[in-house]
Amino acid sequence: MRRAAGSADLLGAYRPGNSWLHAAPLGLKAGALVVLSAAVLVLRSPAVVAAAAVLVLTAYATAHLLRESWRPLRSMWPVLLLLGAFQWWASGWEAALLVPGNIALCVAAARLLTLTTAPQVLMDGLVSLARPLRQLGADPERFGLTLALMLRSIPFLLGSARDVRESAMARGLERNPRALTVPVAIRALTVPVAIRAVAYARQTGDALAARGIGERI
Amino acid sequence: MPAILLQNVSVLPAGGAAGEPILHPLSLELRNARTAVVGANGSGKSTLLKLLNGLVLPDTGSVSIDGLDTATQGAAVRRRVGFVFTDPISQLVMPTGRDDVELSLRASIRNRGQRRAAAEARLEALGLLALADRSIYDLSGGERQLMALASVLAVDPAVLVADEPSTLLDLRNTARLRRVFASLPQQVIYTTHDLDFAADADRVLVMDNGAVVFDGGPREGIAAYRALALGVR
């Protein structure tokens, strides 16, 4: 299974570096992300979105990651375009710019967090956040482990979907529209992905169990 | 070396399905520093190995490691018995080797700085520190297998169990893996189709159709496997 480029575009695998943003505490970065996202979503003003975009781009530039700033758009643009068209039809040009713009901005800002924060630091942060839940019998370490598994699994699943699509193409399914009715296409693409996902989940579970990770002792 | 005891152990097909047992009743004591298990595909090698750290539980009999039963004390057993899978991509759950080794160490070292230093020491010991921050997808097959091994060894298991660790490796990486295995202080039990690798062991078990059909020294064990698989001596 190869890595899915689209998922890396969207999620942002950690890029080691020495910038101020890499060195900034996770709490500060997460807090800034929440404030920025809340501001653009609540205020719904083109001026606020523009100011936030400048801020996010500046943060990317000073983290020496400016080339990364546009990458989420590479996989998101069809959805954003559709959303913008719908908003323009339903509510006018301002909504057509604001709604997709807000989403792209929030994704870019969240991605900057994962690009500049090592997975272990993210895990430690989530474990700290979940620590009060220990009073209710929850295991904070499991929250961190869940985050790690999510970050690992999404690229796998996207790569799996791409492999299945290419495998269908290799068998000429897309060149034979008669053979590829919508129900057949859905079955041909979703069933193998679902089976691979279950197999992957079992393998991952075995791998964790084999190392005693996630077990209560 | 830790005492691994299998007493009248059998494994039946999953869900009570009809058919031959996956593992026929078997009693073994494993104390040798290096034990190799050889046999055809589907002969029960992987099932036998998975019994040793509780990934598979026996339908009859019991498996114990230094007196710890895999069925009732699974978590304690898995702290003593590390398991390396054939495909390291299944085993490595974090984006980089450093992260994966640190994940293994989270339960024992809470402090992030100390955990990082310990992870680096373990990677250094296997000559992998230079690859620590590389994506696991960008490593070669051999580097990936060694990284998976480093993640398992990070928790200092007393026993290392490896299921066909050299199957996906080329000649050079197999030789590197064999050197690493030879240098480990742990008791090592591994399956392999590589008879040179099997010859490194002190003891060889030959499996066929869910049963151990030979148990002895490496030279005799390899001869017995050749005779079984190819009908030659």
UniProtKB/TrEMBL annotation, chain B:
SMART domains for the chain: AAA (SM00382)
CDD domains (UniProt xref): ABC_cobalt_CbiO_domain1
An MF annotation (GO) of this entry: ATP hydrolysis activity
Any GO CC annotation of this UniProt entry: ATP-binding cassette (ABC) transporter complex
Domain ABC transporter positions: 4-231
Sorted UniProt keywords: ATP-binding, Nucleotide-binding, Transport
Pfam families: ABC_tran
Keyword Nucleotide-binding (UniProt): yes
Family: Belongs to the ABC transporter superfamily.
PANTHER family xref list: ENERGY-COUPLING FACTOR TRANSPORTER ATP-BINDING PROTEIN ECFA1, HEAVY METAL TRANSPORTER
Protein name, UniProt field: ATP-binding cassette domain-containing protein
